[in-house]
Amino acid sequence: MEAHMTAAGSVQTAAALIDALAAVKHWAIANVWWLALLPAAAWAGWEYLQRRLAAKALSQRTCLELVPTPAFEPDSEQIWRQGMQLVRAAGSGPWWTPCRARSVRVRLRADGIRVLTHRIEAPASAYALLARTPFGPRVEVEEVPPVADKHRRHVVRAVLALHGEPGSRLREVPLDPDPLQPLLDAVGDLRAECGDLAEVCVDLSPAPRWHLAARRAQAMHRDRAQARREAQRDARWLTRASDDGFAGAVGRLLDPAEWRGRPRGRMVMSPQPRRAGREKVLGKLAHSPGLVRVQILVRCASNEDGRAQARLARISAAMDVFAGPSQLTSLGWSLGPLRFGPDRRPWRQRFDEQWKHALMRPARGGWAHIEELAGFLKPVTGAARVPLMESDMPTYEVGVGLLPQGWYRGPDGRERLLATHENDTLFEVQSGKAGWGKTTRAQVHAVASAHNGRGLAFVDPHGDSFAEVARYLAHEDLIDRVALFDLTVHKDTDMLGCWNLLDMSQNRPPHEVCAAVVEAFAGALGWGDVTAPRALTILTKAVEALVAVNTRAVAADKPEQQATVFQITALLTHKLFRQAVVAVLHDEARRWWTDSFPDLPRESLLTVLNPLERLGASPVVRGFLGCPVSGYDIRQAMDDGQVLWLCPPGTGPTDRLLISLIVHDFLRAGLSRRDLPEKARRPFRFYLDELISLDQGSSTVLAEITEQLRKFGCRLHGMTQLLHRLSPTTRAALMQNASCLSTTAGSAEAIAQITAQWPTTTVTPADIAALPRWQHYASFTVDGTRVGPLPVRGPALDEVGHRARPGQVKALHKAAHARTGALPLSERTTIALGQEQQVLAFLAPATAHGKTGDQYA
To answer: How far apart are CA 174 and CA 264, in angstroms?
Structure first.
């Protein structure tokens, strides 16, 4: 009875359970829509929470820019450390940060102003980690504000995904040349005036363990399935192979088992699925260190139609450098002329959200090792050919304080005339083959400086440069500033200025005049305290005596009766002239002439007389140096901003002596500007052609000009064919202080002197030796930064923008001669030859009355 009741209870329980299940079924059928909406609502709530948390985390970001030096050349170890540092920074946000917001962005940006900047955008808490980079002192880290772009009318977008087998790698690109070189070439011709912009954002995120485990399981499952399919295919091929052939076909026709449809009893062993190792199957997924999720977003914009699309195509092509077993390809698909992808709805909204907030939503296959992305994890290196941008070096405009340097052809094929700022261009050295454009480039430079209101002195031993530049200097605002000293004249009617080295009419201190003249002769002739002490003493005493005479003449208001350097010969060799001069000296100076001079051997005087005789043998040089009142005053030219053109007669031994006197006077005049306040020292440029003829043996005047005269507002531009023929002292000073270095084609030995100053570039002497005429390689200083070396074409005078006025050339010559007090050559020669008598005539009254120099002290 009890068992019966237990069975009845069980039946009732089962019936009740069935009824409950039926009720649940009916309820579920009646409320199916609510049951479907419940997980959707849960998912929506979770997604909303994730979005809010991600937005909050991504709003607290820091932006750093990595600025490399030209010598930056990282190795693979430094890049690995930088990559690991970025991965660590990506996960340094708050604990509640969603996976999609645990990212760090490397932004490569080009806007036509800067060629390709390298920015890192990471959680704010990672600042201390990223502020110090493994790249060392050759990369400067600067904190910068977030990017704020202006609106551009045309914008195109692309998402680059890694396509290939799950474990396959991108190609290992060497660091030399720079992996970013194709990208640099793709963005090198951006034009800021067109609103061009190109950006590549590489977002990195640490690999989640569960996600990585799932990907590994998928890869293993896919490999096993592939192995089974290959084994089945091989089995089918084996079965067919056993039945193939003429004999097999005849056998099947004769076999009764084939007619009855029964198997023939022959069995073929099926191949076993191949077994591949875990490392081979998983590839890069096998090792977790350095493995990251990556998404690459590209955006190009412009205000002109078609430019952004063309830029995107070039950037996509630049990514082919990474193509290997895996490659970077753009997501999307095309239908005829239409392309569907990030530029189309609804995909555009997703792209814009990723772009704006750096959300990590990588496409399938978005896994990479740091080594694969090495090209993106560092700034541009010194091994790259970086195109010159407008912001790197200005374009020349007339009259805005710029100096034209040469025509540069950009990546887009356009030529522009590069320029440097007047204040940046201190010293310049040009080297190279004769006739290849050094002097022409210097002429253009000088004309531009003159139009900028600056003073200059151009020394041209060839004498034909002024004829080429005259029509460009014949402007109303320049004519009154131009002065010409042309010593290449031949006709008696040709106009010639003069320069008395001993002229005291400018009230210069006598001891400074004496020192300048003696040092000029000593430097030009290689005299020293050891090599020619007696000649130095004789010349010093002679110059002191004649300067004293000239001081008396100026004080007596008779400057036209001053002595010149040619009266040194009369002082040393003519007894009557010497007695007249000595009579007016003070006691100390007279004592040397009366006590020491008579004991000097005749041969000791020849050392001093010889260079003077050589100078006086030329009528032109005699007329230039032998007249009493100077029209040449380089110090006055500096202070007034004059445009001084000096054309010495040649480059022979005597001519080099004259040029050396002129250059030594440059140094003296520059140093004399110490009596002016720094702001009152007007900049003044010296252009010296044929430096070899100016650099004499032990002379250090050129080195002293570059080392000492910068603070006094003086600048030096030198041209030479063979830089290595200059003295080591001069060459070292020029190289040390040069703001601009340029060279044309020439011998490898000569070119190597320049290329040795460009150790961080790939320009070789062989590259320069093959340059055609007018082509140069040059480096410049712009805003304190060296730019180049760059290949430039030397500008011609008619290309720069200064208007030629050939009709005003005669007026220019007239004004230039008037400023120097020029006279016909015959008249100058007559004055020079008769100057000794003029000095004697001045000294005669003083001698007759027994006046001494003490009265005029």
So the answer is: 62
pLDDT at residue 158 in the model: 86
For 795-848, the DSSP string reads PPGGGSSPPP-GGGHHHHHHHHHHHHT-EEHHHHHHHHHTHHHHHHHHHHHHHH
Query: What pLDDT score was predicted for residue 274?
Result: 64
d(CA 570, CA 572): 5
Exposure pattern of 98-119 as b/e (b: 16+ CB <10 Å)?
bebbbbbbbbbbbbbeebbbbb
Q: Which of 295, 243, 278 is nearest to 264 (CA)?
A: 243
**In the block, residue with structure tokens 């009259």:** 399
Structure tokens at 823: 């006279």
> Distance between CA atoms of 629 and 644, rounded to whole angstroms?
18
Both tokens of 762, joined, read 């790939």
Encoded tokens for 847: 């001698």
Angle of the 32-58 helix axis to the 2-30 helix axis, nearest 10: 60
Question: What is residue 856's predicted lDDT score, i.e. its pLDDT?
Answer: 32
DSSP-assigned beta bridge partners for residue 635: none
pLDDT (tens digit, 9 = 90+) per residue, 451-463?
888 899 998 876 6
Give the phi and the psi of residue 122 in degrees, each rounded to 5: -145, 170
Residue 718 φ/ψ, nearest 5 degrees: -115, 145
Q: How far is CA 70 from CA 74, 161, 245, 778, in A?
A: 12, 32, 72, 16
* Amino acid, single-letter form, for residue 96: W
Pairing of β 684-688 and β 455-459 = parallel
| Residues ≥6 apart with Cβ < 8 Å to 679 | none
pLDDT score recorded for residue 30 = 66
Around 647, how many Cα atoms within 13 Å sit in the side-chain half-sphere? 18
pTM of the full predicted structure?
A: 0.75
Nearest to 121 by CA among 53, 63, 59, 40: 63
Q: Taken in order 503, 841, 560, 657, is the CA torsion positive or negative?
A: negative
Identify the segments of the chain with pLDDT beneath 50. Answer: 259, 262-265, 697-698, 851-857
Sign of CA dihedral 830, 831, 835, 838: positive
Task: List beta partners, residue 66.
Answer: 118, 141
pLDDT of amino acid 456: 92
The conformation of residue 170, written as its DSSP 8-state character, comes to: -
Burial of 679 (0-12, 13-18, 19+ CB in 10 A): exposed
Which string of DSSP letters, residue by residue, matches 369-409?
EGGGGGGGSS---TTS-PPPPTTTSPBP-TTSSEEEEEEEE
For the chain, what's the residue count? 857
The answer to whether 410 touches 387, Cβ cutoff 8 Å, is yes
**Residue 741 in contact with residue 779, Cβ under 8 Å?**
yes
**How far apart are alpha carbons 412 and 183 in whole angstroms?**
15
Residue 660 in tokens: 């050396």
d(CA 70, CA 335): 46
What's the pLDDT at 98?
72
pLDDT tens by residue, 785-844? 888 788 889 888 888 878 888 888 888 889 888 888 888 988 989 998 888 898 888 888
Report whether 527 contacts 535 (CB < 8 A): yes
What string of H, E and C letters represents the secondary structure of 292-329?
EEEEEEEEEEECCCCHHHHHHHHHHHHHHHHCCCCEEE
Residues pairing with 717 in the sheet: 428, 687
Distance between CA atoms of residues 630 and 820, nearest Å:
8
H helices, E strands: number in the chain: 31, 24
pLDDT of residue 25: 66
Q: Is residue 855 helix, strand or coil?
A: helix
Q: Which of 817, 802, 480 is nearest to 643 (CA)?
A: 480
